[in-house]
Amino acid sequence: MTTPGDLADAIASAGTDLLRSSVPAAATPTPDGSLSLEASLPLDGRRWVCVVADDSGRRWTVPVVRDGSSVRRAQAGDGVAEALVERIGAGPLEQPFALASFTSRPVRGERGMGVDQTNESVVVGDAAVVKWCLHLAARGNTAAPPAARRLAALATAGFDGMPGLWGLLSLDVRAEAPLLLANVTSYLPGALDGWDWATADARGYARGEIDFDQAVAPATAIGELIARMHVALAASGRSTATADDARRWASAAERDLATAVARIDGPEGDRLAASASQIAAELRELSELHATPLIDIHGDLHVGQVLRHSDPPAYAITDFDGNPVSRVDEHDDRQPAALDVAGMAASLDHVGRVVLRRGDDVDHGRVHTWIGAAEEAFMRSYRQTLGDMGAPDLLDERLLRPLRLWQECREFLYAAEHLPHWRYVPDQSLADLLGSAR
Ligand code: ADP
Ligand code: MG
Question: How much is the pTM?
Fold first, then answer.
């Protein structure tokens, strides 16, 4: 028998090992000081879902298992994900935990997802995916993304463009937005994300292996999917951006541009600095764009969040659990739909840049044709679907261009933070956007 006191002691003494996930490339966070137990959900006699915090109030979700006489971080195979799936639909949990249940059936056997992730997903019985949302908003952060609300709203609206939702485990923290600790969805066998399938399509077209219609059809499918997603999200409420909101966007965008100029060196940095005043002038236009409709959006949308599965291919949007740093506005949960649209359009362009960079005997002209055609097909089908659904006003066209330029600034920041060589992508995209062939 492990009492809550024993568990708290075991967690305090386990140290950083407690935060080590089984995702191969994931860096283990370095806690500030010691870890303490904030909340624990017992699933059975020897398995728990815990929330732990360090001395600065940073928090993590940790699946925990008792192994003999000691307690350690659970990995795929230890049965914590399986036990969570078993709990779905088995009645309410004790406060402060909540488990929203949508569907479930008994499934057995755990394995890791086997892909690089920032979070950790465990496939249960080849039927369900338990995604542990490892990195939680820090203590006192009231701007946690409304992930659970978005997923529940989509499921309730019958939106079928995402993996089917089984359950959402969250923790209610007084005076904060609830923290989403895990989501459980249907496993889509053989699913590939867009950094794989879209680059394969663009490369295939550029090498003459697939025809134009085949190469561009997915962009049409995604435009429709995202429009339907926005309409479903808008059903749970909308508001209107104020003049203050618009001013805040403009200054956040200009700040990102300034940071990118300061942090990117070399020829790409020189080119960015040379066009900075032109970009800044366009970003400043955001400050005039108040009165735009705001809804819950995905918030971190790019081709990597779109899974292709089944035959004939179907598409499913993932990763609604959100990345708080990518939000336009930290003060309101709702955002302009154009933010998702600009993010997706930018990523189609970036797919082309990746294909050009890798070479592999591709016809460069055909890659550029693919970039233009894919973006156009995506936008046409997005607008058409919004129109068909009676919601054309959800997209404020005026925002697209400045948000797209802002996205390229964020790509530079991503390169500066995580992946230095990625800078060629925003460098080349900006050249085309600004009409200066580089
Ligand atoms: P992260 O937050 O770590 O980026 P994602 O939710 O984007 O996690 O998932 C990472 C990867 O896991 C995806 O790119 C995809 O390859 C795979 N994946 C995610 N959800 C599913 C699913 N329901 N079925 C099959 N594969 C999935
Ligand atoms: Mg992802």
Answer: 0.91
